[in-house]
Every structure is written in C-alpha cells, then in structure tokens.
Design brief:
By secondary structure, the protein is α/β, with parallel strands linked by helices. Helix content is about 40%, strand content about 15%. A seven-stranded parallel β-sheet has the order 3-2-1-4-5-6-7, sandwiched between helices. A six-stranded parallel β-sheet has the order 10-9-8-11-12-13, with helices on both faces. β6 (about 205-210), α8 (about 210-220) and β7 (about 225-230) form a beta-alpha-beta unit.
C-alpha cells in the first residue's frame, strides 16, 4: 500500500450509512484512495430524518476522518409538513401531474419542481454546511478537493473552498445535472440551471464521469476534457458473512432476481412479464421450473404495469432487502435481471446495479434497448444478453430454464478474474487517483 502522504477532501452528500447508489461510489473512493497515496477526509451530512429517510446499511462508513454537517432535503421536510398526503418524492409528483389532477395540484408540483427545489432538493446543505466547512478546511489543509454529484451542492461547496483557499478541484459526475433528461425543468428554469452549471464548472481543474457517453455530453457542453471513472463492485462485500435467504426462497427450479428500485418512467419490465406469460400459456414451463423474484423498496409498482396475479406461480414480489441480503441473493441466483433505461437520451447511464451484478458472477439478462452502454458491455464482455421483444425473451428463457446457453457461456465469462478486474472499485479508484495526480502535477 502506498504511503498516504497526499490529502484529499472528499465532498459528498450521499455516504454510508445511507443505503444509496451515490453512497457506494464515494465510500469506495474513501476506502481505496489510501492505497494510491491519498489520505481521505470525507465531508458529508449528518443522518437525520430531514436529510435522509431511506434504508441504512449496518456497516460502518469507511475511513476514520469524517466531518458530518447539518443538512436537509426539501422532499423530507415536505413529508413532515403534510404527512401522509405526501406519498413520496416520485409518487406524489406522478399523482399531481396526472391529466385529471386539479389546477391546484398542478400548480403545487410546478412550484415544488421549479422553485422550492431549485437547483435541487438538497440545496439547504450548502448554507447549513459552509461556515463549519471553511473552518475545518483551515485545519485539514487538503492538497486537492474531490466533489461528487448529484446533488450539485457538493460542487458549490467545493467551489467556495477553492475560491477561499486556492485548492485545486476535481468535480465528479455520477449523474448529470442540467443535461439530466429524467429531471428536466420547465422553461425558463432549465436555461437558468444550465447557466449556473456553466459558471460553476468553468472553475474546475478536472471533470470525471461514469461513462464515455456522458463524458461526450459534458465535453460538448463545457469544452473541457472529461475523464471516465466508471462505477464498480467491491469483492469484499460479496465475501462478507452470508445473510439468510428471504422467506419462501427454495433451491427448487431456476431463480432469476431483480434487486432495486423500479422507475416506470425510465424502465419497462413488461416485456419480461409478457415472455413469462407466453411460456405459461403455451405450457412450456410448469410451476417449480422457474421463479422471478423482485426485491426493492417499490417493486409493488410492477403490479400496476402488468396483471401479475396471473403469474403468481412464477413472479414473486419479495419486498425490500438489506444490502447484504440482496448481495447474498444475487450471488446465489441463476440469472440476474436488469431493467435498462428506455429513454434514448440516456444511453450512457451505467447503473450501480449493473456492477453489483458483474461482481456477483452470475449471467445477466438486460431488458431494454440494445444500443445502451450496458447492452454494449454485456455483448463485448460476454456477461449476458440484452433483449426487449417478448417472443424472443420467451425463447431465451425457455433455453435457460432447460440448461441453455445463457447459463453456460455467460457463467464462464462472469467468473473470469482477468475480465472482472477492470470492473472492481479498487481499479476504478486507481483511475480517479490518476486524475488527482495529474491535477497535482504528479507523474
């Protein structure tokens, strides 16, 4: 391990014990950057019901030097103010946007999306944190700043520190900001958001993001070179003590699983459900041959997309799982299902879920377009296949259930150490360390 003589201040809203995709990326930087010569101090938020109301991981946050500041999320505050009437960040907006919604509801969602949460729901972190942060930086004396977004409040905090202390700054984009098509604002707020981002990013010393497609978007917008540092998997998480299987899980038949959120606006699980229906109606599978388990905080939403009561022998809503239990199920499933983004403008999105699946060492079936970065990686590396046609999916599943090709060749590829190395968190943190070294002028 290299001597961690260089000091980096890692600025991130999402960090363990938060059980969130953004937290896994930043936790990996904190864990592995010392192996590349960096002492890491992490600036993040205090965990409370106003900053985070989601699942928490039982594991402790990596790294010893952690500064936690006051913070608040507008969505969490809204939940506390209006109680059960606020169904959740996505659910309430969907209800209020409905064509049958009244004028007041539509006005409220416009106010919430374009004014109250501008530039983001986490914006209160900046005024809550900045005074204490500047005081802490005087003591820490970091050599370089690494801010991770979204939320972009981390970038605003980094810019303030850079201006005050003239410390070089690397801005990392796990997700895009003004170019994020899933979170588009109404005009003229989208133009204002873009202007603010340009003013912010012109002061960075380097930019990083998770895929080449997103890097091209950033390069075209800002005219700056952008390095790609993808997400990855941490093999230590899979080597942890085995968790129990969910109730009802048995060793009989083939098991396919999906773990995570379902976003009806971005993902379409229906082709897979139709394929299973075709197999069932055609008597090509029987009860006990195959089960698709859906795990996640909102997987019940799948029932609103397709009549799953007709497929109760094959599709099981498993509910939400702690992260260690979800990883255990992934490692012991026969097939891992991922619902890729369907928006053609989001082809470059590398979900954290995909890298977890790669680390699990099981064949992967992606439901979605065949021209995304995930589909391309599955094809080039041979870890699995991509399909969105129900009839073709039915044939693929039939072969798989009866010992076909997706369970053999993909399995061999999925456990090849040389192929997996570039997908590890440690390897990708090394890529980030190279960016930090470049900015600091270290050869």
């Amino acid at each position: 391990m290299a001597d961690p003589s260089k000091r980096v201040l890692l600025i991130t809203y999402y960090y363990p014990p938060m059980q969130a995709p953004g937290a896994y990326r930043t936790a990996a930087f904190s864990k592995f950057l010392p192996r590349f010569g960096y002492h890491v101090t992490t600036l993040t938020v205090r965990i409370n019901r106003y900053a985070w109301n989601g699942a928490l991981t039982p594991s402790t946050a990596p790294g010893e030097d952690i500064i936690r500041t006051k913070a608040a999320h507008i969505g969490e505050i809204a939940k506390r103010l209006v109680g059960r009437k606020f169904l959740g960040y996505g659910s309430t907006k969907a209800e209020f946007r409905d064509k049958n919604a009244g004028c007041l509801k539509k006005a409220l969602v416009f106010f919430y999306e374009n004014l109250l949460t501008f530039p983001e729901p986490e914006w209160l972190w900046y005024p809550c944190a900045i005074k204490g942060t500047l005081r802490a930086v005087k003591e820490i004396k970091p050599d370089i700043l690494l801010s991770c977004a979204l939320p972009v409040s981390s970038h605003w905090i980094a810019r303030r520190i850079k201006r005050r202390f003239h410390i070089p700054w690397v801005a990392d984009y796990r997700d895009l900001w003004s170019q994020n098509h899933f979170k588009r604002r109404s005009s003229p707020f989208n133009a204002l958001e873009s202007l603010l981002e340009r003013r912010l990013i012109r002061e960075t010393d380097a930019l990083t993001t998770v895929s080449q497609q997103l890097a091209v978007k950033l390069q075209n917008k800002f005219g700056k070179s952008v390095r790609v540092v993808t997400n990855g998997f941490d093999s230590d998480e899979f080597d942890a003590e085995a968790a129990p299987f969910p109730q009802g899980w048995s060793k009989a038949g083939k098991k396919a699983i999906y773990t995570g959120m379902i976003y009806p606006e971005r993902q379409d699980p229906v082709p897979l459900f139709r394929a299973i229906q075709l197999l069932s109606e055609g008597k090509r599978i029987e009860k006990g041959d195959f089960e698709l388990w859906l795990f996640g905080p909102n997987v019940e939403a799948a029932s609103s997309l397709f009549p799953l009561e007709n497929l109760k022998d094959y599709v099981i809503i498993g509910g939400n799982l702690p992260r260690n239990q979800a990883l255990h199920c992934q490692r012991n499933a026969d097939l891992l299902v991922i619902f890729d983004w369907t928006d053609k403008r989001e082809k470059g999105v590398y979900t954290t879920k995909f890298f977890e699946y790669v680390g699990a060492g099981r064949p992967i079936l992606s439901i979605g377009p065949k021209d995304t970065v995930i589909a391309e990686t599955l094809r080039l590396k041979g870890f699995g296949v991509t399909e969105e046609d129900p009839a073709a999916l039915a044939e693929l599943l039939k072969r798989f259930i009866h010992g076909g090709d997706i369970g053999t060749e993909a399995m061999r590829r999925s456990v090849n150490a040389d192929l997996l190395r570039e997908f590890t968190r440690e390897h990708q943190t090394g890529e980030m360390a190279a960016v930090l070294d470049l900015v600091l002028g270290i050869n």
